[in-house]
Structure prediction request, 286 residues.
Amino acid sequence: MVCRVDLHVHSKYSNRPSEWILRRIGAPECHTEPKTVYETARRRGMRFVTLTDHNCIQGALEIAHLPDVFVGNEITTYFPEDGCKIHVLVWGISEAQFEEIERVRENIHELRDYLWDQKIAHSCAHPLYNINDRLTVEHFEELILLFNVFETVNGGRNQRSSGLVMAVLQSLTEPQLQELAERHRIEPKGDHAWVKGFTGGSDDHSGVFIAKGYTECPDANTCAGFMSRWIWSWFHPESIANSSSRGISTRGSFAFSPTAQTPKCSTPDTAILTFGASMGETVGPR
Prediction:
């Protein structure tokens, strides 16, 4: 059995938009009711449902009593040296864990360490989206060191960016990761940190594209099973490093699909040099 879940979707509780014009007129990012997200996702074939509102779990808690729901959150975090803003998705958290995340999220290094200490499933969202115009190639290299899972299907972002991220991460090698670690003085987590995982979601803010991007996972009949399979493969990558299938895949009817041919590059370093042209590019109204 294959189960699907849209791992990046918003409700009306995402009410503090990044776009200055929306803040100026007092408009929220999203108006969709949490229950509408749930009903739409289930109707469109999602086995599990979550909400990943910005720095808020109120919407997820409103539907937490419904079948096959787990709590998610899209965290805003920062590189402490220059304030570069990054979004990180987390799932399966408790209210107590959310409160601690709120405490540490101002520093991306402290946040990463907390997520690992708590074994919280997480993914670096849309890693080439230049949220506050401070993202550089060096930041992306540091993200490769800080995170082992990346969102590579996102309904609100440029397809080329997703393809570049996938190409770099799939061709990453242990020596290349070690060179980055020595250059940036950041120690990766995990024994096989050059083996990356991928997630997908719609990043819907309108109620229109819910479940148009999603993540697949086989053999998970319950939320607990879904989360435990993730945690096993993400925190024990040796179980998938030599496998032809990671057991988890991403799909999107409007975004880059890893089943399609990925862009070719000679080395991850070569591909990294091309990222500057894609930073900040978006599709759709966002």
Summary: The CA atoms of residues 239 and 245 lie 11 Å apart. The chain has ten helices and eight strands.
